[in-house]
Amino acid sequence: MSARANIQRTNRRESQNKLKLVRTERRSVAAASGTTKAPPARGRRLPGRSDPGATRPGPRARPETGKGSGDTEVFDNLSKTLAEQASRLTPEEQLQEGKIRSGLVGALQNFDQDRTALARNLIEYRRVFKDQRQWTRVAAEIGGAVHVSARTIFRLIEDYENSRTDKDTDMIDLSNIKGAPLNKEDRGVIRARLTIRALLDEFPNNKKKKALAEVLAEEAYQIWGERKAFVIDVLPRPSRFTFDGRKRVADDDNGKETQWKTA
Question: Do residues 59 and 66 touch, judged by C-beta distance below 8 A?
Fold first, then answer.
């Protein structure tokens, strides 16, 4: 090793020793004066195993809604705001709004426990505000009390109405729509008529009789075994069934059952 390298090495050692001496003197002075400071951290220290005394921060608390929060002031302010919105309504509508509002606010306080009750009250309350823009503003105020948007309020109403529609449909007496159940003979007549209708649909009215007679002649020969000519008297009359053949025709205007006559 060269002499120059030895000198540089010696100088570095001396510098390090002087730095250590200065630090030691500073610690001694600080300890004597009682102003000892913790060495600055080189980086952000996260709580973990290396720091048993530290506690990890918990999850951010979500805003509480309903009676549990004890924040009755929010609902009192909402009631006043709704009253201001209702002041733009007619006197009759204002009276109706006042009767419904207390139930609505009460349902909002139980929002987390019973959303079905809230949806029912929202539907009643919506009937008062017939103007869509005003109802949108009202829905936004209502949603703000429970930390949801107006869109969520609309969805609560929609979901409830859809669920009720499904149940009401199951309770409908379909006989009022489809009529009395058709028996086997009725269904056979309807099928035959629909077949004839489809066959003659392409013929003009002045040729329908001839086309029907030709089809009937072939059917009588091949299936019935008829070999002699015969005559059928056809007396046009109303049908026992609706035009589409789904149900029987209801009672006539006099409330008496229609009498069907055959030729």
Answer: no
* pTM of the shown model: 0.39
Residue boundaries of the structural domains of the chain? 67-171, 179-258
Concatenating the DSSP letter of every residue in 86-119 gives: HTTS-HHHHHHHHHHHHHHHHHHHTTTT-HHHHH
Which residue, among 216, 173, 176, has the nearest Cα to 192 in the 3D structure? 216
Specify the pLDDT at position 172. Answer: 52
Residues 125, 97: Cα–Cα separation, whole Å: 7
Run of H or E residues at 3: helix 3-33
Q: Which residues contact 186 (CB under 8 A, 6 or more apart)?
A: 240, 241, 248
CA distance 108 to 65: 8
What pLDDT, on the 0 to 100 scale, is given for residue 241?
Answer: 79
Identify any residues that bridge with 241 across adjacent strands, giving them in sequence order: 248
Q: How far is CA 93 from the centre of its chain?
A: 28
102 vs 47, 54, 139, 168, 240, CA distance in Å? Answer: 49, 48, 16, 28, 56
Q: What is the DSSP letter of 67?
A: G
Tokens 């510098």 sit on residue: 15
pLDDT at 176: 55
Question: Positive or negative, the Cα torsion across 23, 29, 32, 36?
Answer: negative
